[in-house]
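Much of our argument rests on the idea that a fold can be written as discrete symbols. In the encoding step, the backbone of a single protein was reduced to a row of integers, each denoting a local shape. This step matters because it turns folding into a mapping between discrete strings. For completeness, the protein is quoted in full, as a sequence line and a line of structure tokens:
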Amino acid sequence: MTEQHGAPRQRDDVAAVDALYRPFPDFSSWPRLGPVQHELWARFSSELNDQKGRSTDDRFERLVTVAVRAAAIDTGAIEGLYQVDRGFTMSVAFQTRAWEHALGERGDEVRELFEAQLAGYKLAIDAVTRKVPLSEAWLRSLHEQICAPHATYRVLTEMGWQEQPFQKGRYKEFANHVRLADGSYHAYAPVADVAPEMHRLFEQLRTPAFQEAHPVEQAAYAHFTLAVVHPFADGNGRVARALASVYLYRSLSIPLVVFADQRIEYLDALARADLGDHGSWLSFVADRGIDTMQLVSESLRSAAAPQPTEIAERLGSHFSPRGRSHAELDNLALRILTEAQGHWQRAVGAVRSRLRLADVSQALSNDPAPAGYRRMAGRHAPRVTVTLGTPLPAAYDVSLSFRVNIALDEATPFGFQLQVLGSQDSIDIRDTDVTPEVSQSLKLRMDEWVRRHLGALLAQLEEKTSNALREYR
């Protein structure tokens, strides 16, 4: 538990510390927000409302949920129930990937505390959205919800430190004054004074002056007065922060978010308020409200802007289609082209002795790729040209060229196309046909493809030379 209560052991000592208690001030004597703070609050609330108006209701609600979850996870850390860091807090708040795993690593107790605290903030929000009047009964239900996981609390009795049953939703039965490092005590309301003080607190919250006050003044006063009374055996800080959130949420739909790394500043501002410097506490609450407005506003702006991860993914798909870089795809295309060239060289070699010219060579070309495909990278892409020629007296040449095109559509099952230029005849090739090596299936298809086109080339050459030779007969 968070509050290790250092109540004096002897009844006389308890009475002496009880006498140190100083009741909280009426709201009529509570300070008002200064002009600079008023101006800042108006500026950032205007920006928040402007961003809210530009966004979808769903987007705004999601970001408010982020703020509420941040408040819920760090409110327990402020009390020392567990440790957090900014990365963990934001992971839980934004519900990023694996946030549940990160929370689970902290143990079931942390998860249960977070869920109870989150439910408490939702109860506070419900009081606003459903227009539930705030009352002592409502506050006790809030305490019961936030402290649900706790079964006992640690208290210093006349018999020494003991674990006592924790009565959730009920006012304290033992003094919970806190013993300070110098041996003195910070006095909260005596047990006998809790009921009348809580009655007076809610009377103050219902006064016309309070109802018409600035939300920061309301939130700061409600939090401070509850902290002064300390009506519950434990959980007072968490309940106070949730109660203060009611007033900020009623005004701007944001909770009071105090991050764990602001704990020292938070406690220092409360301590100064206990000594009468209520202005410092008021400024602290105003600053935290502005922080939260800025967080939600900036998140709304970011949500409406181009999303880095989405753009990076699209950008990556341009340069790494099908999970491969352009260079990798080019290398595979070159492997196909080289394999096809080898098939042609072997096929042409079988008929070379009967021809004047039989050449299979690779060169560069800037011919455009067909629709849906690209060439291999570079200003000029490689292609292979096959040239066949007959000897005199009928010296004719015929040729064809082929290249490999790379598909632009990632969804296509065939990433490559072996194409004869100027022809619709092509072989569609899968990535798996050439990785890790050229498949036997592709080699057999290439054999048939080469045989077909070589036959067509030779038939074309035969027709030309036959007509020419008739002139010599």
Remarks:
- The longest helix spans residues 440-470.
- Confidence is low (pLDDT under 50) at residues 1-7.
- The CA atoms of residues 71 and 257 lie 5 Å apart.
